[in-house]
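tool_call predict_complex ligand=XIL
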Amino acid sequence: DVGLNALAQRAGKLWFGTAADIPGTDETTDAAYLKILENPANFGEITPANAMKFMYTEPEQNVFNYTGGDYVLNLAERHGQRVRCHNLVWASQLSDFVNNGNWTKESLTAVMRNHIFHVVQHFGRRCYSWDVVNEALNGDGTFSSSIWYDTIGEDYFYLAFQYAQEALAEIHANDVKLYYNDYGIENPGTKADAVHNLVKELRKRDIRIDGIGLESHFEVGFTPSLQDQLSTKQGYIALGLDVAITELDVRFTQAPYYDAAGEKQQAQDYYTSVSSCIEAGPKCIGITVWDFDDKYSWVPYTFAGQGGADIYNATLQAKPAYYAIADAL
Ligand code: XIL
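tool_result ok
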């Protein structure tokens, strides 16, 4: 057992990474957890699960706090792990001043621009990439309601990428990649088609986008097929983009989470998603799981009664899913 990132790197092309909800949480001081997290043979990439989100980086208007983000970057850099910076513009986890403000299109656009410029320029090229806009679409491909969309209209989406591009250019960090990140865009359909249209519209406006983040939050037994996941990735790649699996987990929608048949199905589900990235070739540049362990998984907090979604159990033992990923890599 050489570690999943070591296997991924040996396969030649991609990293294997994880989200980590640090600092300020129990896992921040959990030695057994940190021992797994900080080993670059396990994870070649870390995504801050929360630390770089709007409510933490700009808690009050034009008052910035980079402590949490810097903490994640420092930890990752000590171990040669890269960081996908997450995220700049999203409907959720906004500061009160944004949610409660009385905005016009112009004034909220200025808030968005100011946030993007400060955060992007502070973290600079320590970020491998930015999720510039997160989860902008409904299942039917229309823009979902958010303070951004409701106040600014669809321009918010294009402007966010434009500002991120400009902020990076100003500090000569044009190699930091710009991503759109979402769920439900891992298989063919209306939502994936809508992502293609957003990319084309950005191109029409001469605004850069480098990649699509496929969150890949799946349920045991309901992971999209290898063929569907592969062809969808190939579709984004055909637009000239990189793709990454950014938030992979496979949750049980009800207990038990640890019986043999269930874990076998879950292992198969992980195998399918990882294989789709391998088969897509070198433009599928990495796979990130959203928490690696059931001890600290976000799932039970968000989906009542659901859990067991990760590749290590709640006592940090590798599950069958772990070994299935090793096989796929
Ligand atoms: C989740 C975090 O894991 C939780 O700790 C937090 O309470 C809510 O957000 N899609 C995303 C991530 O893009 O930012 C979300 O992270 C999970 C769903």
